[in-house]
Amino acid sequence: MRFFGLIGKKLEHSFSPVFFKEKFEEEGIEDAFYNLYPLKNIDELNQLITDFSNLSGLNVTIPYKQDVISFLDEIDEDAKAIGAINTIKFDWIKSKLKLTGYNTDYLGFIDSIKPLLKKHHKSALVLGTGGGSLAIAYALKKLGIIYTKVSRNPKNNNELSYELLNKELISETKLIINTTPLGMYPDISQKPDIPYDSLTKEHLLYDLIYNPKQTEFLRKGEKQGAVIKNGFEMLIKQAEYSWKIWNNYPF
Predict the structure, then answer these.
(1) More confident residue, 200 or 52
(2) Coil, strand, or helix at residue 191?
(3) Fold of the domain spanning 106-233
(4) I need a surface site. Which of 98, 164, 194, 234 has the fewest CB within 10 A?
(5) How far apart are CA 42 and CA 146, in angstroms?
(6) CA trace torsion 141, 226, 198, 176 (10° rounding)
(7) 213 Cβ contact list (under 8 Å, min separation 6)
(8) Entry pTM
(9) pLDDT digits (tens, 9 = 90+) for 194-237
(10) 2-103 and 106-233 agree in CATH topology
């Protein structure tokens, strides 16, 4: 039997078990299971690995995408450049376990957003500076899009505070990506503090959140005529890439 799963803190609303259960059924896979493994802190990962000797792969979510790095034996070059991990592959080499870290979030994001990009999407605002923002920033570099991160507590000259998001800046920046948890279920009334009245039909608003389907961030953008997209397709795509990594499938 092969066991896969997701580690994080609050996992009760995760879509991953449903996705992989359906995938196993569709492909006639009977020797694989996907479970949720909530960890109170990242140090519990060692005990999890000890308790479940049949683990073949793990996905990693908030808040452990950076903390998990110290547990790995090897890191993929893209994941190393990003500085965050969302996929771990388990390999046994001469009776010794090897853990390799990858990041498929940036691949899922690129696949998801690419069909929506227009010529005027030359620059972006990335709301948030957490682990999710690292993959998005890397993806934007790959796409040739200039970006600026927005934070409640800017730490350097490459980050802006929300107070500086005026009408002029919003008008010049046609792509805005929310990587914060603001608006995620159950606190669905929350939203990033940006001047929504300055949005236009040329704007593209992307939210990594997929529950609810339409966050307040997206709803207010749509009201202004902006194109909107939630993170559900990105979730599916990154999971598919994880499966390929675990099974050594090419992509």
Answers:
(1) 200
(2) coil
(3) Rossmann fold (3.40.50)
(4) 164
(5) 33
(6) -20
(7) 230, 232
(8) 0.93
(9) 999 999 999 999 999 999 999 999 999 999 999 999 999 999 99
(10) yes
The edge-to-edge listing of strands for the beta sheet with 87-93 is: 32-38, 2-8, 55-60, 87-93, 96-102, 74-75
CA within 13 Å, CB half, 199: 23
What residues are annotated to the active site? 65
Three-state secondary structure call for residue 7: strand
User: SS3 for 77?
Assistant: helix
Span 26-37, pLDDT tens digits: 999 999 999 999
Sheet containing strand 123-127, strands side by side: 159-161, 146-151, 123-127, 175-178, 204-207, 227-229
The pair of three-digit structure tokens given for residue 134, joined into one six-digit string: 């690292």
CATH architecture of 2-103: 3-Layer(aba) Sandwich (3.40)
